[in-house]
Structure formats: C-alpha cells, structure tokens
Design goal:
With 259 residues, this protein is mostly helical. It has two domains: 69 residues, Winged helix-like DNA-binding domain superfamily/Winged helix DNA-binding domain (Arc Repressor Mutant, subunit A, Orthogonal Bundle), CATH 1.10.10.10; 150 residues, GntR ligand-binding domain-like (Four Helix Bundle (Hemerythrin (Met), subunit A)), CATH 1.20.120. It has ten helices and two strands; from the N terminus they run H-H-H-E-E-H-H-H-H-H-H-H. The two termini are 29 Å apart. This is HTH-type transcriptional repressor NanR.
Length: 259
C-alpha cells in the first residue's frame, strides 16, 4: 500500500499525515500537482518503484479534475520522474534514468520566493551583524564560533553526507547573530525568514544549497562575518554580511538549472 494514502473500505490503519493536500491556490494546477508529487519523492514519502494512486484517487485527494491529474502525470513522465505502464498504472522511476529537464512555473515561483527572502535577509542580517559586533557578549561570541565550526565541519563532509546539517547550522548561525544584536525586531524578522524557509521552501532551499552553497569560497564569506564580530568591527561585520547574502541572492537569480 502506498504510504500515507487511505486504505480500501473495510481496512483500518493508524491515523497519519496525508501524503497530499488539496490545492486551493489560483495557479496552473497541473504544475502544482506535479510539484506536490515531486516533493513527496524528495521527502522520501515516495520511492523508486512505488505506484502512484489512480487518477481518480489523486483527483479526489488534490481536489482537482482528473484531466488536471492526467496532464500532471504526463509532465512527470516527460521528465522521466514517473514511468507509466499500460493497464497497470504510473510508478516512480529510477532517477538515474532521468533524461530530460524542464523547469515548471511552480519551480520558478519557488526560486523567486527564495531570492526575495535572501534579498530581505541581506539588509536585516547586515544590520544585525553590525549591531552584534558592538553588543555581543563573550558567551554569545563563543556560541557563534561553535556554530560556525559546525558549519565548517558539515561543509567539509559535502552535500551528499551533511546537506541538512550544513543548512540548519547556517540558519542557526545567523539567528544567533541576530540575537546577539539585542534588537528584538532583528530577531523577529530573522525568525520569520527562517520559519518561511523551513516550513514552505525547505526542499528547494536544500537543493540550492547543495548546488551552490558548499565549498571554501562560501565558508570564507561566513568566516569574514564571524571574524568581524570577534574583532568588534561593526562596519566590517555589516559589509561582510551584506556581501554574503547579496552574492547568494544574485547567484540564485542568475542560475538556469534551478530545480
């Protein structure tokens, strides 16, 4: 039985979070359905060889017409993400056999939202870093150094081994810097940005990190921020932080291979 789906009548299974949810946003629905299925694959709710529910089941679960589901499956089949077998159904394909590449409108929307959040972070984090350089305590600085060491260690392991650890520690690093500023508004906005990333854009954010946020050059940019805080150099902290997030935002906006 496909994980997260309701069993046939007459059978019982413990309550669990649904695999898919209804789509209510006024966007192109086939792309939304396809993106939801891709997210389930990336979150390992669906694995290679798993059979997708029937068109009728997916139509009911998403709250869309069967024609929408049919087009979404066609998009996934075109991308090599699913393999349709006549009279049997659609199955999750082996990613090693994927031979085509298509960026859907929904994927572009995710990239746009991440870029916007990075642009917002640029000003907020730069201001927080400058203030933190002047106000941080020795204990706060020790914690910032510790987290940066965790970022470095995860980066050295590479995205195949420590992607989530690397991303989560980087988010934590700049949250701690915001807290060291002592300004509750910097803290509040930083938490809002982080929550938005974690709850709504995590999969896309992780993909982008794996593709472009690992390596000594990026680590050097983070190190410059930490060093400026260590030296209590407010302007250096502001500039280093601004440079880090401007580069991240601009790099993502210019990429053509995102998602």
């Amino acid at each position: 039985m496909l994980r997260g789906l309701q069993p046939p009548e007459g059978h019982h299974m413990p309550d669990a979070a649904p695999l898919f949810e209804r789509i209510d946003r006024p966007r192109r629905l086939p792309d939304e359905v396809a993106t939801s299925i891709i997210d389930a694959i990336e979150n390992r709710q669906l694995k290679t060889g798993d059979r997708l529910p029937t068109e009728a089941e997916l139509s009911k679960r998403f709250g869309v017409a069967r024609t929408v589901v049919r087009e979404a499956i066609s998009l996934l089949r075109y991308d090599g993400i699913v393999d349709s077998r006549r009279g049997v159904g659609a199955f999750i394909a082996d990613p090693a056999h994927k031979s085509t590449f298509r960026i859907s409108p929904a994927c572009f929307e995710k990239r746009k939202r991440i870029v916007q959040l990075l642009q917002l972070r640029t000003g907020v984090q730069a201001g927080a870093s400058a203030l933190a350089a002047e106000t941080r305590s020795d204990d706060q600085m020790q914690e910032i150094r510790r987290i940066f060491a965790e970022v470095e260690a995860a980066d050295n392991l590479g995205p195949d081994v420590a992607l989530e650890l690397r991303v989560d520690n980087e988010l934590l690093l700049y949250r701690r810097i915001a807290e060291a500023s002592g300004n509750e508004y910097y803290i509040e906005v930083t938490m809002m940005i982080e929550t938005n990333i974690q709850n709504n854009l995590r999969s896309a954010f992780l993909k982008n990190a794996a593709a472009s946020e690992f390596g000594p050059a990026v680590i050097a940019e983070h190190r410059a921020v930490v060093q400026a805080l260590e030296n209590r150099e407010a302007e250096a902290a502001r500039l280093a932080t601004r440079a880090r997030f401007e580069k991240a935002a601009n790099g993502l906006a210019q990429r053509e291979d995102f998602l």
